Backbone:
């Protein structure tokens, strides 16, 4: 009993377990903030809080082996030896006496433990009609072709019809972290009982606790990740925090609180430095699903925090205080009577930049090209060319030359381009360190080279350590699941 503190709360005749120590409870005329959730017309009289004694900080261990996942959700740890269309996948495992051979029909993905991080300084992010995306630099564009430079293929020229959109990155854009992979460095706090763990290329949150890392962020920052869950959850994401064992909003950080159906903000105002909670908005894009892509953008240049869910802007808050000395990022799974499941946090990327940045926002099919400007204006027409640092836009017969430094994004009219990438058991998609992915017909994968053929990019060849993950059966609907430790592949030698 001495290790816990109890207070009593009556809220609409309910008993409510509240947040971990340091969480803010506010009552403003019947409006209650509770663990990042907003309650209207509440009448609290007393407060109950049950707080576990924080455990000593511990580093997050990360295993160093590969993992293959199958379409039924099972997983097998080990090491990929080779793969080709003739022999299939050759895999070794500590649980097996000899190498195992798999055909691609039942494979979902392979995550590799030894993909090398890359030092990229791209100027734009290109999205393609078949779902591929690459970071690089545009060199030319006309009505027929697009020229650009990539880290793996040098200078390339592809059909313009294959291009979906171009996002022009902000100055000094750089990826500070992407993973999670076998790189260590994450600190777990209040891990009693067990809260965060690393499993098969993802962080799994199973209880109240925090997961933090100092990334030496200096400029404005974007934190992106995929989130899936079973049951419900309450997750706080703190950016520019200066301590890793608790959230201190008045230190110049901002905290975005996420639940399956709502997003809220905790920050401090620039003119006072006083912490405040801002009523957020409902997340309508989820519609009963159990997964979403989250992008949180903190813009130091104008004191704003923006949240994008599945590439759609949900909310922008202004007058946020980012003047503190904090340089870290922290994920906090919060105690809540509505939080009764597990979280899976994967495909995490943390980047920083100078000036303004706009995560991609897709409008879907359109019959016209569109240009988005730094002042949030939009112009539609036909983009005739991109060259010499300018975009040539034909706007109802009037041709405008627009400097690219005024452009944040270009979206292209939907083209009727065949997608042969969607078929065949050896049609795969490779994901690269630092972001980007390419689908192609795999021919061979050994210790020296990964080779294949793409309908868009032609003949491809990669170094094996340039790939972090490879997906199979691309047409199969993918619903994220949180794989439990008892659902590993069994009976290998039976």
Residues:
């Amino acid at each position: 009993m001495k290790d816990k503190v109890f207070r009593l709360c009556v809220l609409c005749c309910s008993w409510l377990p509240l947040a971990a120590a340091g969480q803010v409870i506010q009552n403003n005329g019947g409006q209650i903030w509770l663990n990042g959730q907003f309650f209207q017309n509440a009448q609290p009289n007393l407060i109950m809080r049950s707080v576990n004694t924080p455990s000593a900080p511990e580093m997050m261990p990360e295993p160093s082996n590969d993992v293959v996942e199958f379409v039924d959700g099972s997983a097998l740890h080990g090491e990929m030896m080779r793969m080709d269309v003739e022999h299939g996948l050759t895999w070794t495992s500590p649980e097996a006496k000899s190498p195992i051979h798999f055909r691609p029909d039942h494979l979902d993905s392979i995550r590799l433990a030894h993909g090398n991080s890359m030092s990229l300084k791209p100027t734009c992010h290109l999205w393609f009609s078949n779902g591929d995306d690459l970071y690089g630099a545009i060199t030319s564009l006309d009505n027929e072709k697009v020229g650009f430079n990539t880290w793996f293929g040098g200078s390339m020229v592809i059909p313009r019809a294959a291009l979906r959109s171009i996002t022009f990155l902000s100055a000094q854009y750089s990826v500070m972290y992407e993973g999670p992979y076998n790189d260590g460095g994450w600190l777990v706090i209040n891990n009693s009982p067990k809260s965060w763990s690393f499993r098969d290329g993802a962080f799994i949150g199973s209880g109240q606790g925090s997961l933090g890392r100092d990334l030496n962020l200096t400029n404005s920052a974007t934190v992106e990740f995929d989130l899936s869950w079973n049951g419900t959850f309450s997750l706080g994401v703190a950016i520019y925090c200066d301590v890793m064992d608790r959230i201190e909003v008045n230190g110049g950080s901002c905290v975005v609180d996420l639940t399956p159906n709502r997003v809220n903000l905790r920050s401090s105002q620039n003119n006072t430095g006083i912490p405040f909670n801002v009523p957020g908005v409902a997340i309508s894009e989820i519609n009963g699903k159990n997964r979403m892509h989250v992008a949180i953008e903190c813009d130091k240049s104008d004191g704003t925090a923006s949240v994008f869910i599945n590439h759609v802007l949900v909310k922008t808050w202004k007058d946020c205080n980012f003047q503190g000395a904090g340089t870290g990022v922290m994920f906090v799974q919060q105690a809540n009577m509505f939080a009764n499941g597990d979280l899976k946090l994967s495909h995490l990327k943390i980047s920083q930049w100078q000036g303004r940045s706009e995560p991609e926002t897709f409008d879907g099919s359109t019959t016209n090209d569109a240009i988005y400007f730094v002042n949030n204006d939009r112009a539609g027409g036909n983009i005739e060319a991109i060259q010499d640092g300018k975009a040539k836009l034909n706007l109802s017969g009037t041709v405008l030359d627009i400097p690219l430094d005024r452009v944040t994004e270009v979206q292209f009219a939907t083209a009727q381009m065949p997608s042969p990438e969607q078929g065949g058991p050896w049609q795969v998609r490779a994901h690269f360190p630092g972001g980007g992915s390419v689908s192609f017909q795999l021919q061979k994968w050994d210790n020296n080279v990964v080779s294949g053929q793409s309908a868009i990019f032609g003949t491809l060849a990669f170094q094996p350590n340039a790939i972090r993950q490879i997906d199979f059966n691309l047409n199969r609907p993918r619903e994220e699941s949180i794989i439990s430790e008892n659902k590993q592949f069994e009976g290998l030698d039976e």
